[in-house]
Write a structure and sequence with these properties.
The complex is a heterodimer of chains A (258) and B (178).
Chain A (H helix, E strand, L loop, with lengths): L1 H29 L7 H11 L4 H25 L6 H39 L2 H7 L4 H39 L4 H11 L2 H28 L5 H31 L3
Helix pairs in contact in A: 1-6, 2-6, 3-4, 3-6, 4-6, 4-7, 4-8, 4-9, 6-8, 8-9
Chain B lengths: L2 H26 L10 E8 L10 E4 L2 E11 L13 E8 L10 E6 L6 E6 L15 H7 L6 E2 L1 E3 L4 H17 L1
Parallel strand pairs in B: 1-7, 2-6, 5-8
Antiparallel strand pairs in B: 1-4, 2-3, 3-4, 5-6
Classes of the chains: A mainly alpha (258), B alpha/beta (178).
Chain lengths: 258, 178
């Protein structure tokens, strides 16, 4: 009996959470940054995008270099080291760029957003905003949502570009691959509309999911220090898992042959 | 932080992202902004494609002159009767190369040992001047070159390793019986 009650309440809780998220999304989409709210938006773009650059770019450089090294070692067994360029660029553009940027994004920006909004809630800043007649969804949530949605594809593109440069450094500058073969093979294999654009679309989808989770967790967290910490953890875990799951789906749709 | 500086950094960020996009477009995917070049379609029938895909390149003397646009199986003719079950490959050739002789042959080749399959075209001699060595007239030229919708008669299918090996084995046993 008790178990059934618990199941029911869990179910209703989940459904109502989904409903709240949908309403939140609706309000946030309506609350597209206006010219007056541009400063709020810029501030979030600076925080979410610009300040994420160091971690994203450094990670990209090292991942590109490691990819270059590993794939070079494997390809040299078959005497096909010229294919290094296409292997590095395709894996970065299609998968690693969007996914790792998404994971870093969830860990760095998503957790911060949840913690910030959660603290705003527990110190009752959100309710005082409401008392002053300012919609917190529009004032607090919308700028973060839009800034995340805008900054993520740019971050992913920069990740791919820097990663490919890292692969170039290792392959060409260090291991002595011929420069022209590296780029020519890459240009033959990579198609702009299929690989670059699909990677960008992937990253936008990831940003959408991560930001929505982060904002919702912050907004609905239990207003004390433990609640905030739990909500932050949930954002990172749920965000990362949904990125990986969504990545499989998107890959199946975009690159699957059926 | 003053909002001017914020806007500046946000703008810089977007600019850097666009630069990365341009790098990926031009340097990595080799996108060129030339307008869509005009092409004409030519068909060829093969008994075996052996891994030829759409978008594979069509080359002549090593120069890229077009790409494969469609691959289908000729299993039914237009009147509903049985086809010859050959693969029909449709490919686009750049209009710049509009004087390829109509008896040119198409074969499916492999780039490198494990590379992509592509179509190589070897020029025929339909447009060679006759015994009188007079240059061909306009109408003669148009009759002896490939045009939109024409079909190449001479094709050579892809080599399939298993078939080669079985052929080799058959030859071996035959020569062993002698």
């Amino acid at each position: 009996m008790n178990a059934i009650t618990q199941l029911g309440s869990q179910f209703i809780h989940t459904i109502s959470g989904l409903g709240k998220t949908a309403f939140m999304l609706l309000y946030v989409v309506i609350g597209l940054p206006t010219w007056r709210g541009l400063t709020l938006f810029s501030k979030q773009l600076y925080f979410i995008g610009v300040l994420s650059l160091p971690i994203v770019l450094v990670a990209a450089l090292f991942i590109g270099m490691v990819l270059g090294l590993q794939i070079f070692n494997i390809l040299s067994r078959f005497g096909a080291t010229e294919a290094l360029g296409q292997a590095v660029s395709l894996s970065l553009l299609r998968e690693l760029g969007p996914v790792i940027t998404g994971l870093l994004f969830a860990g760095r920006a998503g957790s911060a957003i949840t913690a910030e909004i959660g603290l705003m809630k527990s110190t009752e800043q959100l309710s005082s905003l409401e008392l002053m007649g300012v919609d917190p969804l529009k004032y607090v949530v919308a700028p973060r949502f839009w800034a995340g949605l805008v900054s993520m594809p740019f971050l992913a593109l920069m990740f791919s570009a820097v990663g490919i440069w890292g692969g170039y450094l290792v392959g060409v500058k260090w291991l002595g691959l011929y420069d022209g073969a590296f780029w020519m093979n890459m240009q033959d294999a990579v198609s702009f509309s299929e690989d670059v654009i699909n990677g960008a679309i992937k990253s936008i989808c990831f940003a959408f999911v991560v930001i929505l989770i982060a904002v919702y967790q912050g907004y609905e967290c239990y207003p004390n220090s433990e609640g905030i910490s739990r909500a932050t953890t949930r954002t990172v875990v749920l965000g990362s898992l949904s990125i990986l799951g969504l990545d499989f789906l998107l890959t199946a749709i975009m690159f699957g042959d059926f | 932080m003053p909002s001017n500086k914020l806007h500046f950094f946000a703008g810089l960020f977007v600019l850097a992202g666009l630069l990365a996009l341009i790098f990926l477009a031009l340097r990595v995917s080799g996108l060129s902004f030339s307008s869509e070049e005009s092409v004409y379609e030519v068909k060829a029938k093969f008994t075996e494609l052996g891994g030829l895909r759409e978008r594979a390149k069509v080359s002549m003397g090593g120069v890229n002159i077009g790409s494969v646009s469609d691959i289908s199986l000729n299993n039914r003719l237009a009147d509903g009767s049985m086809g010859d079950f050959k693969a029909v490959v449709t490919f686009n050739i750049n209009s710049r190369y509009d004087n390829i002789p109509i008896d040119s042959s198409a074969e499916i080749l492999t780039a490198g040992i494990l590379g992509e399959k592509y179509i190589g075209i070897t020029p025929g001699s339909a447009c060679a001047p006759g015994f009188d060595d007079e240059p061909l007239s306009e109408s003669e030229l148009s009759a002896c070159t490939l045009k939109q919708g024409s079909t190449m008669e001479y094709t050579q299918s892809a080599m399939v390793l298993e078939k080669l090996i079985s052929q080799f084995l058959v030859n071996m046993t035959e020569s062993g019986e002698d």
